[in-house]
Amino acid sequence: MATKGFVLYLLAAFSAAVLSAFIISGHYTYKNNHLISRPSLNSDEKTWPELAFSWRIMLGTLIGFLGSAFGTVGGVGGGGIFVPMLTLVIGFDTKSAAALSKCMIMGASASSFWYNIRVQHPYRQVPILDYDLTLLFQPMLMLGITLGVALSVVFPYWLITLLIIILFLGTSSRSFFRGIGMWKEESLLKKETVKTQETSASFTEKLPIDTTYEPLLPRDEKTLLEILTLNLRWKKLMLLVAVWATFLVLQVIKNDLVACSTWYWALTVAQFLSTLSVFGFESIKLYKESKKRKRLGNTESICEATIEWTLPNLMFCALCGVLGGTVGGLLGSGGGFILSPLLLEIGVIPQVASATAMFVMMFSSSLSVVEFYLLNRFPVPYALYLITVALLAGFWGQFFVRKVMAILKRASIIVFIISGVIFASALTMGIIGIEQSIMMIHNHEFMGFLDFCSNQ
User: Fold this and answer.
1) pLDDT at position 41, please?
2) Alpha helices in 262-335 (DSSP H)
């Protein structure tokens, strides 16, 4: 019921925001039959500061390190922190900042992947990376990023800011209350564990197997080779790489075509078809398996998610995957601000939700980085430096938080980190967006929708 209410909140708020954009754009007219272009925000003029030791670099490195560390742990990437840091602190233009943000997310997600393939699942003999959920969300996220980049050309900047604030405040508050609920459950479980251990040392053997906080239970430690063998599913990994490569080839070819030409739309349709084919394949697999287990009375979940894979739930996941990618394309993030809370929503435990979300973003962010490199949208030395910062931050952030979780025995820490990073991103992106929008109003600049084909 709470999920439906949250979806209704998003739909109502987004509809009201877009409708207001149409009303506002009706008060503006074109002058001399020429489109009024967006201000310097969308200008092709590049501002690339020199990579030299200064207080700006030091402050930017510190913010980037902390943002990457917490963003990686929470599975949200940290794009909402990276973009303001790169523009306000270091001094990049908005487009270059978005491109470098993708570089940092790619570095953080790569370090997360390397760290997590060497980590046991908290309580089950399965990979900590959920490959089924990755195959379900990866194509939709990449499709959403393509749509987000297109909408960033069409949507007025103030509308993008408003949509981001609505979405981020909604997801952060939703995650925060979920974290509180999980914290209370953990407290009750810990109290009961201590109480029963005083009377019976064998209590842990009687705990229900489907409890959310199985890390409290003892487990058989495996060797590093055994963990790697368990976590790496080569066939599914190769399929994910194949989807990534297909999307990359189509996108690179499309970038060299004239916008809105026949071949441009043909490749756009091909992207939709390739995305829907992979999503449909995985959806049918989950649907049939779910139906089969229900018929046999098997209550064990197919993957980490505890929801039943019905048609409405699959459509909901598809919508959220596209929405997450669209926000990533608009913002310059990896889409984790939607994906990570969504995985929690469908019943994935925090450790797996974080690892899987970053795993999905490794593909989407690297796709964007290759595209931006071919378009010469970022300085390579800066990109390499920031990727290194994100790599180190992502690894040590995961290591530190996992140690804290092991001591406190509370997985809800990850949920609070998710909520905190998303809320901080809402503040930073909101402040920057409002400031930019006020400047545009003072300069009497066009505040309505732009034509897609004329502004590519």
Assistant:
1) 45
2) 262-296, 311-331
